[in-house]
Structures are given as structure tokens and as C-alpha cells.
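forwarding from the other thread:

> can someone predict this with calcium ion?

sure thing
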Amino acid sequence: MPPGDDDCDGWATGDEDFYGTLPFTACPATSTANDEEPDPWPPDFDDSQTVNLLDLLPFKQHFGAVDPQDPLYEARYDLQADGDIDIQDLLPFKQFFKLSCA
Ligand SMILES: [Ca+2]
Ligand SMILES: [Ca+2]
Ligand SMILES: [Ca+2]
Ligand SMILES: [Ca+2]
């Protein structure tokens, strides 16, 4: 667990504040995709309780954003919190690939 991970979901509260995910809720409440907003668990972009290839579909729509002014940009998908959305943002995602949270 990173330091400052209040809900023990593997992501620091400061990062969750940046993404707009829930820093005090670890797992999505339902396995139904895209029925929760904001999402509780950063790598589970469609809040399905599982991190898999389907989570790359929403990510792809924002891929290639070069800075926060870019219309493609959304902090939710900037997992490295560095102001762009590129392949680097999939590195933290990959560590959670195939994991479930419920
Ligand atoms: Ca959380
Ligand atoms: Ca859900
Ligand atoms: Ca998912
Ligand atoms: Ca980034």
C-alpha cells in the first residue's frame, strides 16, 4: 500500500483526489459497469469490480492528450498525474490488471 492510502485500495488519497475517485471507498459497490460516478477504484475505469481489457475502452478515448488544456484530457485517466495521457499512465494500471475488488 502506498503511504496515505486511507481506503487501502492501493492508491494514495492525494492521487485519488487528483483523479476524482473516492479516497475513502476501496471497491465499486456493484459489478454492473458504469453505474457509479465517481468511481471508487482508480484502475477500474468502468467500475465493474474487475480490472481487465474493457477498462481500456474508456481510457483509449482520452489517450494522446498532451496537456490539461487538451479537450481529450481528463484527470481521471492521468494515472501518473503528470498532465498528459499516454502509455506511461498504463504502468500503474498494469499492476492491477486481472485483479478484482468487491
Ligand atoms: Ca478508493
Ligand atoms: Ca459498478
Ligand atoms: Ca473494470
Ligand atoms: Ca500522464
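The chain has three helices and no strands. thats all i got for now
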